[in-house]
Amino acid sequence: MTFASTPRETALRSALRRPGDALPDAPIGTVPILWNNVDLEDLAPATDAEVVLDEIARTGFEGTQEGRGFPRGEPLRETLAARDLRLAEVYVSIPSGRDGPPDAAIDAARDRLAVLHEGGGEVLVAALDVSPERSGWSGRAAEAATPRLTDLGWRRLARFVDRLADEAAALGRRLAWHHHTATWVETPEELDRLLDATDPGTVGICLDVGHWKVAGGDPVAALRRYGDRVTHVHLKDVDPVVLAGLRTGAIPDFEAAIRARLFTELGAGILDLPGVLAVLDERGYRGWLMVEQDSCWGPPSESAAIGRRVLSAELRRLGQSSPAAVGPSHPRSPCASR
């Protein structure tokens, strides 16, 4: 199926982003894992990449993460342009043991950076692979018995991240580090340690508010604390019942939690979405807002549409309640601008 942006899709985007809405300079994208879960491929039937992109465009998004089955290079640029979509990000998952990532992992990471650069993308979102050693501690990784990186592992990881960030910057791209459940960098304390060891000028944060909640953090407090170092945001809501099961051990690990739909439609869980958006609006955030949901019970396009409309409604409410959100008076952060 080939899709070209039509007046209806253009009108929908206009209806979802109106003058006076909060965060007018922050583009809104989504993540195709909702259609094709790259970690648990049996969760749903495989969906052709062109169909995924058609649905992303039809549900009112402006951009996408690169996904399974997408072309690369010029064909990817053309496929996105036909739908008036931007390549917001490419995700790179880095293998690591307790002693950090192996030296050979840089080659695969460079290939993901090449996908971003060749496709005209904007942000390289980097994270560690899910680790079997950490998966069973998901949701309670702050406990003292949780296995952790060694001192050598932290040094090797920091060198790896700085190196990859420098290479991204040389191509005019930005790296944002994504803390992630069931990995060696999950908790607020672990993210702090990595940030302290890496260059703040090249290594930004992709704050995934859902993973932050699972790790026991407060996304609103994190946004205030990290400020302009947050250059990219994944908006993800969390089902409180599934999270409670993960923390008590009734749900044994991260994979089982995803199968139980730990992450739910935006607005249906325990995320303080108004608080998150208000802090971003206060600082005049201009980075991407990526609506993400790893799995769903119903049709993916329905969940995507719900998330997009919930976000639209909250941005409108925030804009109407905060006169400071309207107009060019916001100070703009250099590291958060495109």
Model description:
The protein is an alpha/beta fold. It has one domain (23-336): Divalent-metal-dependent TIM barrel enzymes (TIM Barrel), CATH 3.20.20.150. The protein has 13 helices and ten strands. The strands form two sheets. The chain has an eight-stranded parallel barrel with strand order 1-2-3-4-5-6-7-10, surrounded by six helices. A two-stranded antiparallel sheet has the order 8-9. Helix 4 (105-118) links the parallel strand 3 and strand 4.
According to CATH, the homologous superfamily is Divalent-metal-dependent TIM barrel enzymes
Integer-rounded radius of gyration: 19 Å
Shape: globular
pLDDT averaged over residues: 93
Task: Report strand %.
Answer: 5-15%
Assigned CATH class: Alpha Beta
**Count of all domains:** 1
Uncertain segments are 325-338
In the sheet with the most strands, the strands line up as 1-2-3-4-5-6-7-10
User: Helices and strands, in N-to-C order?
Assistant: HEHEHEHEHHEHEHHEEHHEHEH
Q: Largest sheet, described in full? A: 8 strands, parallel, barrel
At the fold tier of CATH, the topology name is TIM Barrel
Structure summary:
The protein has 338 residues and is of the alpha/beta class. The protein is 40% helix and 13% strand.
